[in-house]
Design goal:
Layout (H helix, E strand, L loop, with lengths): L3 E6 L8 H15 L3 E7 L22 E5 L4 H8 L16 H13 L10 H15 L3 E6 L3 H12 L4 E6 L16 H17 L2 E4 L2 H8 L10 E3 L22 E6 L9 H13 L5 E6 L4 H10 L3 E3 L5 H9 L3 E5 L13 H7 L4 E5 L4 H9 L2 E5 L3 H14 L15 H12 L1
Parallel strand pairs: 1-2, 1-4, 2-3, 4-5, 5-6, 6-7, 8-9, 8-11, 9-10, 11-12, 12-13
Helix pairs in contact: 1-14, 4-5, 8-13
């Protein structure tokens, strides 16, 4: 009998950005393996996307069937009455200033628990149950954030207890690094934590994108229940063998490139200050820093005034990103500047790895990102708080960057088409 899977995801094309990539890639790989994949997602007219990328429709396998749910979108109201109060990317920038902004934050953390995108949950449970009955799904997968998606899986499991429900976490829930910015009271924290605990207890399996996140989520249930917690990292939607290595010139500026969202809370100044000092010294090739992606206007202005070597290019279409990354000398990866950074593996890491360019990661030696970079020999950690080590690593990258492409064999476990078998084994 043909395997059928119902995937429930808030972020799906035309939504863009890295949040879409994980399950769009896995769904495509599953479909190519002969699995009948259905996706239930929010209707674009009801959605609140950080980014929109219509070109992603062209990347979806024809066999994937998409079902959409319409619902009230609270962000559409906020945009009309207080657009400046809408949080920045991943709530990592605090934009809720002023009386109205503070009021909206209180509403967000006390009325919209676990998040403002919960308004489609009730309709999605109803539609999901109908799809289970119509198509005979045995497996339902929910992926978050937003964490409210997990409530949909919980509701379907409660109504159709014979289905196998897998809850996939791309980020933690109440331990997400920006949780302190959300303005929860003691009561709303307890309600949120109780929701999280019930989801983790009731799901048949729990997937996490990193070892750190797996252990963090598993610590919230009884030890005897932790065997259902597994790691399925993010990965690459392409085979790096398909790309021709681009030779690097040893003359001219040394280009460091960052693609994706950047926020002040990530504190990249540690690296930028080191670059400024190295450029001022004049003993090495001059560094240039090219940034492609989203950044607040105020923070961009601050960085441009402070550093003369940084250039901002804004958002570019997803299909252009690969060429931009492969043309860099080094790709810069940011981890959040928080204590609980161990399990945070940006999906951007795997795009970077596939570009076959050395990666400079601003984080901690104990982070799971550093573990992957070391195992695959694809980059180095620029340790937060150690300015001397950061400068030494940047100088060393200039001499080793042209020799860093011979790592393709190490990337095999992170190619989506290979990861699909691991996923199918877990689902079985």
């Amino acid at each position: 009998m043909k395997t059928k899977i119902l995937l429930i995801a808030y972020y799906w094309p035309p939504g863009g950005g890295i949040a879409v990539r994980r399950w769009m890639g896995l769904a495509n790989a599953l479909s190519r393996r002969g699995v009948e994949v259905h996706v239930m997602t929010i209707d674009p007219s009801s959605a609140a996307y950080q980014h929109v990328d219509e070109s992603l429709f062209d990347e979806i396998e024809n066999g994937i069937i998409v079902h959409r749910v319409k619902a009230f979108n609270p962000f559409s109201v906020i945009k009309k009455v207080a657009p400046s109060a809408i949080p920045g990317p991943s709530f990592s920038e605090n934009k809720s200033s002023g009386l109205l902004g503070r009021l909206l934050k209180v509403l967000r953390s006390h009325v919209f628990i676990p998040d403002p995108r919960k308004t489609w949950v009730r309709k999605a449970i109803q539609k999901g149950c109908g799809l289970v009955d119509e198509y005979g799904f045995q497996t339902v997968i929910t992926t978050s954030p937003p964490q409210s998606v997990q409530l949909i899986g919980q509701g379907i499991k409660r109504a159709r207890p014979k289905i196998q429900w897998t809850a996939d976490f791309r980020d933690p829930w109440t331990d997400i690094f920006y949780y302190e910015h959300l303005g929860h009271s003691l009561l709303s924290r307890r309600i949120d934590a109780a929701m999280e605990r019930r989801v983790l207890q009731q799901a048949d399996q729990v997937l996490a994108v990193s070892w750190g996140f797996r252990d963090l989520l598993g610590s919230k249930v009884e030890p005897e229940d932790r065997g259902k917690f597994h790691v399925l990292t993010n990965g690459m939607d392409f085979d790096p063998n398909e790309y021709e290595n681009v030779p690097r010139s040893q003359d001219g500026p040394f280009r460091i490139v960052h693609t994706g969202t950047i926020a002040q809370s990530y504190a990249p100044e540690l690296v930028l200050d080191s670059i400024a000092a190295l450029n001022a010294g004049g003993e090495h090739r001059p560094f240039e820093f090219d940034y492609y992606g989203g950044v607040s206007a105020d923070y961009q202005k601050e960085l441009e005034e402070r550093y003369d070597f940084i250039r901002f290019h804004g958002f570019v279409a997803q299909h252009q990103i690969g060429a931009i990354q492969r043309a860099a000398d080094v790709l810069f990866l940011l981890g959040p500047d928080v204590d609980k950074s161990t399990g945070h593996i940006p999906g951007k890491l795997f795009e970077y790895m596939g570009a076959l360019r050395p990666i400079a990661f601003l984080g901690r030696p104990s982070d799971d990102v550093t573990r992957i970079l070391t195992e695959t020999q694809t980059g180095v950690c620029l340790p937060r708080g150690d300015v001397r080590a950061i400068r030494e690593a940047l100088v060393k990258l200039q001499s080793t960057a042209s020799n860093a492409e011979n790592v393709i064999a190490n990337l095999e476990p992170y190619i989506r088409s290979n990861q699909v078998q691991q996923l199918l084994d877990l689902l079985d």
